[in-house]
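In the design runs reported in the main text, the only information available to the sequence generator was the tokenized backbone. The following block is the verbatim input for one such run; it is reproduced so that readers can re-run the procedure and compare outputs position by position.
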């Protein structure tokens, strides 16, 4: 199982807004731990152990999902996943607890349904909560939801900014793509991700 983020060999990543190519290898597990400091090393200690993933468990699926992305995009996606899953602890939204809301980027039920249709899952006649369970029971589908959402819902101009790994790109990702506020909590995750991937945000 791969646990190294090799840049650019694996991700063809851009290290900064200036476009300098990054050549170092980054441990995916260590990157996740630094961005998501609350991630558990033992999911049996979670209040939702069937939803929880350790950094070691999540890393191979995130590597596969993000392998064609720049370092800027990787940092942004990991930041969002960290916030939405409470550091990989949850796959189903607990607050406000909307039935059918979940996945690694906590998509609303309507987007979970669209994603399930994209995956060609057998959803006919199923409830929103059941559709979500079909999606998240597969680890790769769960973790790849954030990239699918970017592909489907972010405009090309936002994607271009995201690829550069700038603060502006992150703000646009949140406000124009996800349509959420750029909170202090989200900024804290973004700051850690920038540090891990040596991004200036400029």
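Verbatim output:
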């Amino acid at each position: 199982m791969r646990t190294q983020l090799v840049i650019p060999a694996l991700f063809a990543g851009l290290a900064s807004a200036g476009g300098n190519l990054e050549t170092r290898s980054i441990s995916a597990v260590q990157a996740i731990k630094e961005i998501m400091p609350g991630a558990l090393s033992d999911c049996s200690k979670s209040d939702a152990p069937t939803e929880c993933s350790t950094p070691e468990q999540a890393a191979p699926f995130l590597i596969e999902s993000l392998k064609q992305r720049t370092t800027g995009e990787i940092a942004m996606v990991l930041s969002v996943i960290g916030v939405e899953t409470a550091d990989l602890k949850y796959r189903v939204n607990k607050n406000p607890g909307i039935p059918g809301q979940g996945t690694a980027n906590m998509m609303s039920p309507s987007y979970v349904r669209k994603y399930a249709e994209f995956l060609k899952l057998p959803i006919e006649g199923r409830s929103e909560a059941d559709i979500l369970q079909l999606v998240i029971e597969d680890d790769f589908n769960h973790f790849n939801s954030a990239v699918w959402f970017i592909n489907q819902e972010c405009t090309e101009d936002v994607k271009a900014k995201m690829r550069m790994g700038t603060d502006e790109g992150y703000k646009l990702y949140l406000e124009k793509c996800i349509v959420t506020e750029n909170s202090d909590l989200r900024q804290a995750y973004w700051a850690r991700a920038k540090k891990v991937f040596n991004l200036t945000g400029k």
